[in-house]
Amino acid sequence: MGCYECCMRCLGGVPYVSLVATLLCFSGIALFCGCGHQALTESERLIETYFTRDHQDYITLAYLIEYFQYIIYGLASFFFLYCIVLLAEGFYTTSAARQSFGEFRSTVCGRCLSTTFIVITYFLVVVWLLVFSLSALPVYFFYNMANTCHTINILSETPSSINQLCIDARQYGLLPWNAVPGKACGMTLSNVCKTREFFLIYDLYIAAFAGAGMTVLALIHCPLHLVAWQLVFRERHRREKEDRRLHTLFGRVLNEQRGSLCSPCVLHAADV
């Protein structure tokens, strides 16, 4: 076997679909965990600086942010291992499918593991759809904040009207209702929107939202690919059983018709 044939054989065994899903999942998790962690840290500073005066007003939010950051650490570790298993499953499935037309037979244990992996992936899809929906909430908050600031800049010539334009963090559940002031209005809000921290946090939440979407796409893409290979295996197994049944039936017919299938020219002792 030449070098070219060897390279083509190796490239033919690469599970490109699983490889794309793995890279997409890695990228999505990296975006979501990295950008989400930094965005939560910056959000705590922003709310502490512009929306509250008492440390006790945002202590609950600070604890929640800390818990979410620990969850992000766990997600990053879990999906690092999950993506490795995903790629290994892709290699196993692709190799089994490519060799199933030869001597190879996929084992019952292998099919059971693939089915279990598909079920786990479907469960993760449901979980990440929820995460994807929740990650849209901070994007919505900062989008409304940016639109309000844009309106304030347009109406800057009428100070009496812009003071009525506010963003109340208490309405979004970020602060308790007794927090003072709990909101930013008028030119104060406009100055907040002009800070570097605001644009940084807004971009980080958008990136985290995009990362969650990429992870959902990867998790949906993966089970569809595995289910397709499962159908290929099942159809191949059905055909093999049918071929064995026909072969056994044909063998029985040959045994029953052995006498009639013998040559009619029988030698007798008198003819020798």
UniProtKB/TrEMBL annotation:
GO biological process, any: axon development
TM region positions: 16-40, 70-92, 113-137, 204-229
Record Pfam families: Myelin_PLP
Keywords: Membrane, Transmembrane, Transmembrane helix
GO molecular function, one term: structural constituent of myelin sheath
InterPro entries named in the record: Myelin_PLP
Top-level lineage group: Eukaryota
GO cellular component, one term: myelin sheath
Protein's recorded name: Myelin proteolipid protein-like
Species of origin: Sinocyclocheilus rhinocerous
